[in-house]
């Protein structure tokens, strides 16, 4: 059978799809140390709350039947959207009404819709791109454009911190935003690095975007107000020019596929219309399970008091393990500021990060090689892309500890 261009684009096995398959079979296989994937941890205190809420719903007359038996509207569950608008107004004073919100089947699809609303082929025949002002950036953006040559990206500036840490910053000196850019996008906190763009960087990016008449998309999959996996002081940000995406995945419901887009009314409405065409409506189970927590504001306290400390403790424990085991390997780690990952930079690594990934896999330890996290910089040679790996610390303590030891042992052998 002959596939269309669309068919060809979405079936060509991107490197990352192969890698995800690897991760999937490793999960099924059993004895791999899984420091590669992005699955959030199962946090008992959070899961118990969802279990209890589900039991309440099941005990209500017609509770089960309405949970599974009714479509929501194409913008998503209205009661949830109203509760969320109220929460954002009350907590942050944002001028957000239900008309500014649309739900999607996971933030991933919401981001894909947004990218294709602002970039690709424009009505006048010109072409526009989404610009990532700072790479490394989230691997999941890489193939989300419906046309080729869809993304542009810039290298960061690098601040060295002490002997072992470093931090990426937006290199504003090199950040030209030309007529061919339709939107700026950053994840905050950033997957894969755990970087949290500073308040000043966000304000500066917003000012640039506003000046160019384009939106600044902030992907808050790990950010505020929930799941709030942020270890630094970072002000939640919103402006009429900003589009913020959020998700219930890292709050503990990745399998219920609930993404949230907060945007100017016209854009929130467009998201609803795309939902209608592509999937009729977003799923309603996630919103129903989380609704009471949004109404009461508990979603923010659970994030602040349970989820954030849970990951923070793991982040710094894993960092300490690396510090203990790395010895004199010339490795720097991105300052852990949020999300679920440590980002390791091996200076002048004697092989590529992809090769290191293979060698670690042969020793039953899975990480993700850094070169996948540079969407928009695919055609640009930069040694740094091949010197980094992403390590997830969401798994249990023994798995992470054994994984860290194997990584350190393998790189010591490599540097010889
Ligand atoms: C930065 C970032 N954005 C978006 C997503 C997508 O999240 P969702 O599960 O809501 O589709 C992820 C998932 O890992 C992510 O890491």
Offer a few descriptive terms.
alpha/beta, about 425 residues, Aspartate Aminotransferase, domain 1, eight-stranded mixed β-sheet, Aspartate Aminotransferase, domain 2, six-stranded mixed β-sheet
Task: Give an account of the 3D structure.
The protein has 416 residues and is an alpha/beta fold. It folds into two domains: 12-45 and 302-415, Aspartate Aminotransferase, domain 1 (Alpha-Beta Complex); 71-297, Type I PLP-dependent aspartate aminotransferase-like (Major domain) (Aspartate Aminotransferase, domain 2, 3-Layer(aba) Sandwich). It has helices spanning 5-11, 15-29, 44-59, 63-69, 78-92, 107-118, 199-212, 265-279, 285-296, 298-325, 353-362, 397-415, and strands spanning 33-34, 101-105, 120-121, 127-132, 151-153, 157-161, 165-169, 181-187, 216-219, 242-247, 258-262, 331-334, 341-346, 365-366, 368-369, 388-392. The strands form three sheets. Strands 2, 3, 4, 5, 8, 9, 10 and 11 form an eight-stranded mixed beta sheet that branches. Strands 6-7-12-13-16-15 form a six-stranded mixed beta sheet, covered by helices on one side. Helix 5 (78-92) packs parallel to helix 9 and helix 10 (298-325) packs parallel to helix 12 (397-415). The longest helix has 28 residues, at 298-325. The mean pLDDT is 95. The structure holds pyridoxal-5'-phosphate. The site of pyridoxal-5'-phosphate has 14 residues, from helix 6.
């Amino acid at each position: 059978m002959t596939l269309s261009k669309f068919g060809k684009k979405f079936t060509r096995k991107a490197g990352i799809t192969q890698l995800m398959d690897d991760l999937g079979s490793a999960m099924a296989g059993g004895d791999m140390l899984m420091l590669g994937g992005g699955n959030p941890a199962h946090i008992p205190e959070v899961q118990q709350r969802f279990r209890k809420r589900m039991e309440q719903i099941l005990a209500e007359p017609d509770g089960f039947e309405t949970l599974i038996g009714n479509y929501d509207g194409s913008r998503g569950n209205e009661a949830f959207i109203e509760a969320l608008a109220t929460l954002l107004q009350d907590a942050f004073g944002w001028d957000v009404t239900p008309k500014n919100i649309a739900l999607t089947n996971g933030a991933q699809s919401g981001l894909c819709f947004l990218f294709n609303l602002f970039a690709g082929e424009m009505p006048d025949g010109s072409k526009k791109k989404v610009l990532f002002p700072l790479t490394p950036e989230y691997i999941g953006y890489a193939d989300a454009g419906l046309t080729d040559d869809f993304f542009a990206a810039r290298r960061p500036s690098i601040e060295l911190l002490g002997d072992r840490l470093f931090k990426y910053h937006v290199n504003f000196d090199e950040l030209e935003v030309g007529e061919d850019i339709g939107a700026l996008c950053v994840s905050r906190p950033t997957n894969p690095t755990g970087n949290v763009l500073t308040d000043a960087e966000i304000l500066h990016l917003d000012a640039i975007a506003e000046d160019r008449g384009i939106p600044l998309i902030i992907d808050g999959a790990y950010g505020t107000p929930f799941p709030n996996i942020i270890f630094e002081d970072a002000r939640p940000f919103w402006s009429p020019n900003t589009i913020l995406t959020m998700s219930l995945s890292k709050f503990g419901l990745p399998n219920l596929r609930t993404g949230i887009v907060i945007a100017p009314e016209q854009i929130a409405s467009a998201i609803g219309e795309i939902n209608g065409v592509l999937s009729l409506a977003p799923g309603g189970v996630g919103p129903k399970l989380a609704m009471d927590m949004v109404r009461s504001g508990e979603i923010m306290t659970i994030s602040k008091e349970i989820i954030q400390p849970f990951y923070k403790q793991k982040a710094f424990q894993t960092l300490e393990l690396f510090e203990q085991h790395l010895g004199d390997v010339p490795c720097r780690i991105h300052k852990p500021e949020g999300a679920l990952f440590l980002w390791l930079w091996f200076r002048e690594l004697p092989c590529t990060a992809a090769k290191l990934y293979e060698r670690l896999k042969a020793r039953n330890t899975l990480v993700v090689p850094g070169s996948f996290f540079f969407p928009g910089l695919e055609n640009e040679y930069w040694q740094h892309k091949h010197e980094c790996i992403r390590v997830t610390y969401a798994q249990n303590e023994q798995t992470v500890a054994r994984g860290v030891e194997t990584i350190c042992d393998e790189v010591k052998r490599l540097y010889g």
